[in-house]
Amino acid sequence: MVEACSNFCFPVPEKLEGALVKLVPFLVASHAEAFCASSDDALFSFLPWGPFSSTEEFVSTVLGERINNNPSIALFAVIDKATGSLAGTIGLLDASPVHLCAEIGFVITLKSFQRTHVTSHAIGLLLHWMLDTPAQGGLGLRRAAWRANAFNERSVSAAKRMGFRMEGLMRWARVLPESRTEAEGARREGPREGDPKPRCLGGDSVILGLCWDDWEGGVREQVDKIMSRVI
């Protein structure tokens, strides 16, 4: 359990790098402890897992149970180049070489880097890798997807800013952990009588998409303009 990209269905570069941020495959030895030490409960408000009581629990739950040995998932560490510090995580999931699509996920920006350039630059680097053609250094995917809890306005706004379009609402899309008895982002009503997980609240998800024709039709330039800003 060393690298969270080693089994990915697409070739993974050693790094994806811009002027201010770089993405490198998430390594347990290099990144897990720093991520957990800088995390707080609020980071996991809209996620179906976390918070974690230890680095070992994070590694076991996220990497061991969800990512490792799953060829449709890749997880990157986001590094702020000015400080050399871990600024968060980002990744791909549900990646399909057959259908040339993938979803951006695991977008977690640590508190000290929130409301900075980090999130938009990390998303921009992934979008270039996903949607640029192989001749341009990308994978040539036709579709990038984004899924967010329906109450997570900051996530939806971040996606729209980077050119994603709203496509729909998935009701009862997530079963939240039992520990979230009053979870932010949960449906206000409980599950029906006889539900297999009666103590777990549910969440709705919104789906956004950014496709190759959007990218070629001006979104690439929109993203590059955002990434050209120093602050």
TrEMBL record:
Gene3D superfamilies registered for this protein in UniProt: 3.40.630.30
InterPro entries linked: Acyl_CoA_acyltransferase, GNAT_dom, Ribosomal_N-acetyltransferase
Residue ranges of the region described as Disordered: 180-200
Bias (Basic and acidic residues) ranges: 180-198
N-acetyltransferase domain location: 14-183
PROSITE patterns in the record: GNAT
Cleaved signal peptide residues: none
Any single Pfam family the record assigns to this protein: Acetyltransf_3
MF (Gene Ontology): protein N-terminal-serine acetyltransferase activity; protein-N-terminal-alanine acetyltransferase activity
PANTHER family: FAMILY ACETYLTRANSFERASE, PUTATIVE-RELATED, RIBOSOMAL-PROTEIN-SERINE ACETYLTRANSFERASE
Protein name (Swiss-Prot/TrEMBL): Acyl-CoA N-acyltransferase
Organism: Roridomyces roridus
